[in-house]
Amino acid sequence: MRSRYTAYARGDFDYILATTDPQRRYDFDHDVARAWMRTSTFTGLKVQASSEEGNKGVVEFIASFRRNGGREETHRERSLFRKQGGRWFYRPERRKA
Fold it and tell me: Where does the YchJ-like middle NTF2-like domain lie (predicted)?
């Protein structure tokens, strides 16, 4: 989770994509992620909770950022992860049809 936050802060979209579960990459909105990176300055990450059970994990966090130099904003999320081949991958929720 922390490495993905750092990738957002650095604008490293390739890392974000590489750490997104290959089975769910089509559920991940690439354009929204790129725009958020391009227009935001990330100012902090607070992990509220995390749990792991077998190859599944959950991380609850609050990311702080400023969009286009404006006021401080926060993004709260409960992210799901899946471990495969010894690596953790972010699992976006399935897009609704």
Answer: 1-90
Q: Is 70 exceeded by the pLDDT of residue 28? A: yes
Give residue 95's pLDDT. 59
Query: Average pLDDT, stretch 45-68?
Result: 96
Report the CATH number that the domain containing residue 55 is assigned in CATH. 3.10.450.50
Read off the tokens for 60.
């609850």
8, 36 Cβ separation under 8 angstroms: yes
Write out the H or E segment, with its range, that includes residue 36.
Answer: helix 30-39
14 alpha carbon, distance to own chain's centre: 13
Compute the distance between CA of residue 18 and CA of residue 57 in angstroms, rounded to an integer: 18
The pTM for the full model equals: 0.86
Gap between the Cα atoms of 52 and 57, Å rounded: 4
